[in-house]
Amino acid sequence: MISKRATHRMADGVRVPGTWRHAFIRNGDYFLTDLIIYADGLIDCWGLVTLDEFERKLRSGWVATELPEGARASGHDLAGWTFHEPRTWLTPELLLAEVRDTIEQLNGRPDSTDRCLAAAEAFLADRTEDKRAAARAAYFAIPETQRHYALGDMDRKDEPLRVLVAGPGGHTEEWPDDPVTQEEYDEAVAYFEDRARWIAERAPRVPADGPTTSHAPAVHVPHTYPLKPSDARNKKSLRTDFPAPVDIDGVTYPSIAHAYWALSTADSDARAAITSADTAAAAAKLAADARRRDGWEQARTAVMTRLLRAKYAQHPVLAEFLLSTEDATLIYSDADSAFWGDNAGRGRNWLGRLLELVRSELCAERAGLG
After folding, report:
1. How many C-alpha atoms does 136 have within 13 Å on its Cβ side?
2. Three-class SS of residue 18?
3. DSSP letter for each residue of 306-362
4. What average pLDDT is seen over the chain?
5. pLDDT tens digit string along 44-67?
6. DSSP secondary structure code for residue 265 in this structure
């Protein structure tokens, strides 16, 4: 079952989301470790394996669900102990089913609980024994450890669901010797009818000011070598080294990269040389040999914000292109900086984030809110 423990790994520059849970690995002794499950179906249990390979490790006991009396165990750099009267809730089948459900959840697809509830709804809409049997089979497909969470009701647990799929005269696992009465069954049906009404009437969990995720696909702004003067109004125009002159305090810089590097130093001769450099790359090289201003590292984000605002205020056509990215996440690559660039998930992407800020400010101005 997916938890709030979020992680990821990078695969060919793509961020693959994941989560983890505790598990024991048997490698001679037993080791408490993290079992990391990724959305692409790979599982890290002391090495990445496919789901089929993970199942074989489960069946072999490498990933352990049975903890024998007297076995030695340890948590790395934490503690060591010996099992005494160990109890475990899992079997290989249960753990495998939970991992499969987690992969579905990471991908936003229906898991075994979702499929069961859909089958229950289908039965309630057409109460045939075939539909009930399908709902019952779907109920038993939920990992046993997760069934009591199926309805999200911690008072009733899954009792109404068990009664519904058993039917009048049927038997539930909790009370195998006592058949379900008509009254209990009618109560379960009423519960589901009420539940459907609650779901239909409850306010959606979406902030009042709009969705929490972008509707536009992410835009990747790749590093370019070299960037020559161009009239292009495309992703290249989002780059700081794009040749769009900007006036800052009465000084015209060939690009905001020139302005950024010139402002980074208090040396007036170096500033003049940087400003007149043929390319942004040449400006950066000159700046590397000059002394940075005191406090530059703490001020640089504010400076870049000011420069971006100036660029798009002074170049309306470029502002139109930035606005055309709508609410897309802007992923900025900078081979020279893990601070400014995303760099396949290894950087902080500050330029992408600041471009999104300036885009939002442009939208606010258009809406009369600026």
Report:
1. 16
2. strand
3. HHHHHHHHH-HHHHHHHHHTTTPPEEE--TT-TTT--TTTTS--HHHHHHHHHHHHH
4. 92
5. 999 999 999 999 999 999 999 999
6. B
- Evaluate whether 243 touches 228 at the Cβ level (below 8 Å): yes
H helix or E strand, kind and range, residue 74: strand 72-75
225 torsion bin: left (phi>0), alpha (psi -120 to 50), beta (else): beta
Burial class (CB in 10 A: 0-12, 13-18, 19+), 74: middle
The whole-number pLDDT of residue 114 equals: 96
Torsion, Cα 14 17 22 23, to 10 degrees, reads -50
Report which DSSP code applies to 347: S
In this predicted structure, what is the pLDDT of residue 228? 60
Locus of tokens 């070299």:
226
C-alpha dihedral (321, 207, 121, 156), degrees to nearest 10: 150
Q: State the pLDDT at residue 86.
A: 93
Global confidence as pTM: 0.66
